[in-house]
Amino acid sequence: MQLTDLTVRNFRNITSLDIELPEAGVVIIGANGQGKTNLLEAIYYLVLFRSFRGAKDRELVQFGAPGFFVGGSANTRVTAGYEVAGGRKKVTVDREPVRRLGAAVGRIVAVPFSPEDRGIVAGGPAGRRRYIDVLLSLSEPRYLVALSAMRVALKQRNAALRMGHGDTAQAFDTPFAEAAAIVLSTRMTWVERRTGRFRAICEALGEPEPAQLRYRRHGTKAEEEATDLRMLLASTIDRDLRRGTTTVGPHRDDLQLSLGDHSLQTYGSAGQQRTAAIALRLIEAETLAEATGQLPIGLYDDVFVELDDARQANLLTLIRDTLPGQAIVAAPRDSEVPPELFERPRWTMRGGKLET
Amino acid sequence: MSAIEQLTVELGKLPGIGRKTATRLTFHLLKQPRGAVESLARAIQAIVDRIAPCSTCGNFSEADPCSICSDSRRDRSMLCVVEEASDIEAIERSDEYRGLYHVLGGHLSPLDGIGPEDLRIDDLRRRVENGSGLREVIVATNPSMEGEVTATYLRGVLAPLGLRVTRIARGLPVGGDLEYADRSTIAQALVARREMTE
Description:
Largest interface: A-B, 21 and 17 residues
CATH topology of the largest domain in chain A: Glutathione S-transferase Yfyf (Class Pi), Chain A, domain 2
Shape of chain A: globular
Helix content of chain B: 40-55%
Radius of gyration of chain B: 21 Å
Number of strands of chain B: 6
Strand content of chain B: 5-15%
Distance between the termini of chain B: 69 Å
Number of domains of chain A: 2
CATH class of the largest domain in chain A: Mainly Alpha
CATH topology of the largest domain in chain B: Dna Topoisomerase Vi A Subunit, Chain: A, domain 2
Distance between the termini of chain A: 22 Å
Oligomer: heterodimer
CATH class of the largest domain in chain B: Alpha Beta
Shape of chain B: globular
Number of domains of chain B: 2
Structural class of chain A: alpha/beta
Helix content of chain A: 40-55%
CATH superfamily of the largest domain in chain A: RecF/RecN/SMC, N-terminal domain
Largest sheet of chain A: 6 strands, antiparallel
Strand order of the largest sheet of chain B: 4-3-5-6
Number of helices of chain A: 14
Strand content of chain A: 15-25%
Largest sheet of chain B: 4 strands, parallel
Number of helices of chain B: 7
Number of strands of chain A: 15
Order of helices and strands of chain B: HHHEEEHEHEHEH
Structural class of chain B: alpha/beta
């Protein structure tokens, strides 16, 4: 999949930008604060209609502007606009307005590599759940529907628990459990299928110890093994009422990343955590490629920084093998970009403007 | 605030009517003959003066009990539970049902602060307990998540009272095309498939 053109208006520090992109991609050089990451963020906005940095739509609007607009074509033309007044978002696919965002998500397929990805490995479970939820929403047709239904039922159930209404809360057990079962089985199947690749990629990146990716259900041993979520919810209702929240379910689960027998979150070095984060992005790319039959666009934000020469070479080989499609590479200096990538045109970003 | 502005603001509070439509309606009324507008104003005044919820079923009515509750030809062994009084109109149009109704006044939604005590569920329990000859309660809440949850909750309340509790079916719309139905509707229709009998 190739992004052939891109239009950006009033997105962070980018006032106005209209570019055509080469088939192989492009290298964008710019000092910190010039807008490289903003440009990648704008491109990825067309995938998920949300910031990959977790920013609110309002925060993406350039200071003083009434809203922002991003548009781009890759087989299909996707545009997204946001108006501060009224907080309205408008998305179109091939010039047709989209009623439900879920239906338009993933028309453009891309994988964002960012230095902040280390947080997926080093941070709390919420970041890892976000990683797997985004990935499966883009690759499994019924996942996003189930995830949304689960969240609505969960919010209702928790509101009833906070009011101390056990009966009302339990009336939401069925819709919650039905949606949660789909979310859980989709996640577990994916983890089971990908753990081997996770290990292989970490190894190929130069990690001598065996890496492992596991799905970790939240709760006691018995709760972890429960197959009937409705029965599990029924058995924990007293605790849920006491705490005013639903204490078991996929919304509490975690992905466990380990090296040898130690947890990467707790004991991994910065380098090991960065390697694991890159591996997660690469298996995301593989998953999306298989699910969509299209090679995702690679968005590389300063990924080669802080990698030693050997790991850098390993990563380049992996990218060539698993993600050989269009690459949009951002780096602060020429010297940070491996020479191999210089086969692509090199542009400079300064103060939110691109010099091509 | 001018009279024009005031009416625009009031109309804008109605469901499905935004500022633009409210303005258009206001100016439309200004161009109408005086009699037509007065007739509209009287009609609005009349629903405030004359209509009240039926103390038995909760349906909007000029009389209490309402025309359905007091109609001796209706089947008093059946009670149909709906979310809103407007749902009664819809079911009546089907000409399929001749029993009585009970309006809940909404559905369970803890997020909006609506629990069982905010719906007419206690009234329903009392009606069922005191209603001699009542054999079946049809739960006709909406097929939304909250409507289903409310139905589940009602089953818990009604089951111990020893009468038949049924739920309206979900599935494909009559006269519709299978290929245009959404995924969850088709899934429901498959789950609730039935044997073909002669």
